[in-house]
Specification:
This protein is 40% helix and 21% strand. By secondary structure, the chain is an alpha+beta fold. A 4-stranded antiparallel beta sheet has the order 2-3-1-4.
Length: 117
């Protein structure tokens, strides 16, 4: 399952970076966004992934191995998605929404979130 996010900015870039930082501490998901999609060929090693996430704080080597989605799913009209490793409960989805609210509220960004199978 994936939870797709469409950001209505500004600031879109800061919002994507905030969502990337949020994902580091959300081990039940991997992610993809428009920035990563463009840089994907260069993100083939743990060192490259660590460099990519350097703006977001410390990331472990283990998390580097599974933070970027490998499903190849397209973003479509969305800017970001969280891909769940196992189907989430409604409580997990609600918790993710709260985390996204907390991450984007200080930036003044608005967003929509849609979770699909």
């Amino acid at each position: 399952m994936k939870s797709y996010i469409k950001v209505y900015g500004p600031p879109v870039l800061k919002s994507l970076r905030a969502l990337e930082a949020l994902a580091i501490d959300t081990p039940e998901v991997c992610i993809m966004d428009t920035i990563m999609a463009q840089e994907l060929p260069q993100l083939g090693s743990a060192d490259a992934v660590m460099d990519f996430f350097s703006h977001a704080g410390e990331i472990t080597v283990e998390r580097c191995d599974n933070i970027i989605s490998k499903s190849g799913g397209a973003l479509g009209e969305h800017d970001f998605y969280f891909e769940w490793f196992v189907p989430p409960t409604q409580d997990q989805i609600n918790e993710l929404i709260q985390k996204v609210d907390d991450a984007l509220s200080p930036l003044g960004a608005r967003y929509t979130i849609t979770t699909t199978k």
